[in-house]
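Practice problem: Cullin
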Amino acid sequence: MASTRRTVKTKIKPPRKHESEVSLDETWSRLSTNIREIHNQNASNLSFEENYRYAYNMVLYKNGGILYKGVCQLVAENIDRLAQSELVPAFPSGSSKDPVQQSQEGESLLKALRRVWDDHTGNMLKLRDILKYMDRVYTKANDVPEIWDAGLDLFLKHIIRPPIQDHVTSAVLSLIQIERDGYVISRSVVKECVDVLLQLSVDHDAKTVYKRDLEPAVLTASEAFYSAEGKQLLETCDAPEYLRRVEARLDSEQARTYHYLFSQTGGPLRKILERHLLTHNLSTVIGMPNSGLDVMVDLDKFDDLNRLYRLFLMVPSGLPTLRRSFKDSILRRGREINLASTSIDTGQDMDDGDLNDTENTKGKDKGQGRTAMGPPTLTLALKWVQTVLDLKDKFDCIWTRAFDNNREVESSLNEAFEDFINLNEKAPEYISLFIDENLKKGLKGKTDMEVDAVLDKTITVFRYITEKDAFERYYKNHLAKRLLLGRSVSDDAERGMLAKLKVECGYQFTQKLEGMFHDMKISADTMQAYRKYLEGVLAPEVEISVTVMTSTFWPMSHSSASCIFPEVLIRACKSFEHFYFSRHSGRRLAWQPSLGNADVRVQFKARKHDVNVSTFALVILLLFENLTDDEFLTYEELKTATSIPDTELQRHLQSLACAKFKILKKHPPGRDVHPSDSFSFNNDFTCPMQKIKISTVSAKVETTKERRETRDRIEEERHHQIEACIVRIMKDRKHLTHNDLVNEVTRQLASRFQPNPQNIKKRIEGLIDREYLERCEDRKSYNYLA
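Answer key — structure tokens:
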């Protein structure tokens, strides 16, 4: 029998209501009990799922507020319990003065704070896991902090408060001070405390408790400490030790910031150190007597100088102070060099008769007040330049080794050298003499490379001279004497020096100097042709070597020194003139006896000597050729017979009758030549040397009178240069205001000299009078007149 199965519809039952099983009070009672167990470190015996379900149910059935407030109350109670059990007993007693005991008490409190924090955060991590549903649903809906944040706020409210807060801050400050005093502390303990304070925010701007409380306290304490420290170090330390202490303090504070303070504290803390240890004391430290910058420079303390430079570079006013003191130090030394030059040179202006061979014969000419060391003024010039070069080397070394080639310091160095070198009005002449001495033949003790190195250094000093036109005049005179007397160390050395000057000042500066070398080369070729010419004609009795100088290239200040040649010299001169004019028509030769020299063999009673003398001295000697031993020539007779100017005649008679080799006798005897003197040939002259050189000074410092004459010539040349520059500018611009014209003239002439604005104004007036320029109606500008 078949049966039909009925289809049964499954009925879904609704979920059971938990509140019917467990009441709210019972749920909270169980959860709160478990939370207290977590606070008592017994979480391992609890069920995470069970506690999560308790919290879940309370939130699910709209009891999240009760849960939230209850948990916060339990957390607060636990924090208070920890504070009383851990922190309060660890408060420092404050009775001990021993740094070690103070350190231990401070560390004990900070360790306790860290234990409380670790305990609290460990508990809050567990609670956060249990109350995740509450954080996700209740806290967001009611705009309250999540339980972790609420726990931080409770820690901040119950722990970071007086008196705990004050004790913690004091403990940190005490440990920092103890470490500053040189004792060892546990940095890790302070670091752990700082980490706690950095994790506690006091407002919505994320300002931490560290930034609010600890950092200001640390900075205030540091301000007071380093203010006193700076004063104490100034009283007890010299400059190098002060700098070492400051550097050590900076390093220690940097390490302190790195190891246990917040990195952002490093900046303000460093500013405090820089302000109290550096900025306030820069001038005092650098100017300390017996230990400041000057003493460090004198003793070549490169390490101390480098430390000073590095520390001063840290503050804005440091480098300007260093530059100012560095410049003052150089200027002081430079003025001392100039002063020594002036004081030694006091008698130079009266000594117009220095001789090349000024060695006094021992036992003779006593009481004449002459030294036996050669021309003192030349020695002085060489010493001045060498001292300046040594000073430059010294400060260049300091600039390189101690100041890291700082360009601003280099600028101060250059300014100082330029200032004091130009304070010495003889600097252009002295530098030219120094170069002259180094380019002469027979310079003992120096190789070509050493001479070239010295000349390179000299160019460095030459750069500082503002009156380069004055140097050019002196250099031209000295170069002329070297070339004409054959005293150059080498032609390559001379041309090398010219190349250096050309690099510094341009082609115009060395154009005439190069012309002098060209004349020497042409003259050598001319003499070679002249000797071949003499092979076909009757040669004169005297063999001559002639240098033909272009008057515009060579210094022609000697042209006024005339002379009447003896017949034997006249015939030789005429022979050369006949040869020269046959090759060059339309030219004129003017003999310059003051620049020449001669080799003459002189017969004395004992023996013959080959004597090298100047042309003037030769003319004088030839007048005594046919005189007997008892015959005399008066000064006036010599002057009439030779027409040599008084100044030159006196100098050459001094060299012949008053120097080491007395070929002539002066009557009456003495060092100076007067118009009333008379002279005779010294037939009894003896000398162990076959060859004797008698000449006047080849390179000596100018006298006051000569310097005044040179200065007048230089000023006259400057007038022409200023006028030429004005015309050149106005021709190009056509119209300029007075100030613009003065500025442009000054700029263009700065490479040769610094023109005075008043002189420029006078030259403008002169050009207006000569109708090169005209003054405009506004009286402040000029037009160029074609």
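Discussion: The two ends are 148 Å apart (CA to CA). Students who identified this feature from the tokens alone can consider the problem solved.
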